[in-house]
Amino acid sequence: SNPCLPLPVLQVAHCQMVKDLSACLLGQSLRVDCRYENKTSNPLTYEFSITKDNRKHVIHSTISVSENIYRGRANVTMHKNLVCLYLQSFTTSDEGVYMCELKATNDYTGNQIKNITVIKDKLEKCAGFSLLIQNTSWLLLLLLSLPLLQAVDFVSL
């Protein structure tokens, strides 16, 4: 929690807007979470891109035009303090350095950028409720172990 110090020259508070960038696998899709701190109520524009073989490819953007190969596969959802990129049919050819760039309208602090290197074999599965539904055996195991735990408590009395 570093306080935003106003710049004496421009009198604009310069803060790191993008706080965290993480990636995970959701079924066959890649999900990239770009968490940010909302400093303004101004509309937010975003750009998700990938750099591979020293070339930048725009995946999904409201700042510039996204490339054809990604256009049909990518979509973005916006939540409170979170911009999520979903890239369908994620394969090893989609590995590279993913970049999230955010810009608030009329914000002169410049674009806020964060990178993450995405390698398919190193990705974790996305945590969350959807995973729980698929993995019912875990839930069943928990329910089955409850009477056992109560029995153990009873013995220790």
Give an account of the 3D structure.
With 157 residues, this protein is an alpha+beta fold. 20% of the residues lie in helices and 39% in strands. The longest helix has 21 residues. The radius of gyration is 21 Å and the shape is globular. The termini are far apart. One of its GO terms (cellular component) is focal adhesion. It is found in: Cell membrane. It comes from Rhynochetos jubatus. Keywords: Cell membrane, Disulfide bond, Glycoprotein, GPI-anchor, Immunoglobulin domain, Lipoprotein, Membrane, Pyrrolidone carboxylic acid, Signal.
List keywords for this structure.
4-stranded antiparallel β-sheet; 8 strands; alpha+beta; 157 residues; 20% helix; globular; Immunoglobulin-like
* Through-space gap between termini: 48 Å
Helix content: 10-25%
In round numbers, the mean pLDDT is 79
What is the name of the CATH topology of the domain at 17-121?
Answer: Immunoglobulin-like
Global Rg: 21 Å
Shape: globular
Name given to the CATH homologous superfamily of the domain at 17-121: Immunoglobulins
Strand residues, percent? 35-45%
Number of helices: 3
**What structural category characterises the helix and strand content?**
alpha+beta
Function: May play a role in cell-cell or cell-ligand interactions during synaptogenesis and other events in the brain.
Main location: membrane
Membrane topology: Lipid-anchor; GPI-anchor
Subcellular location: Cell membrane
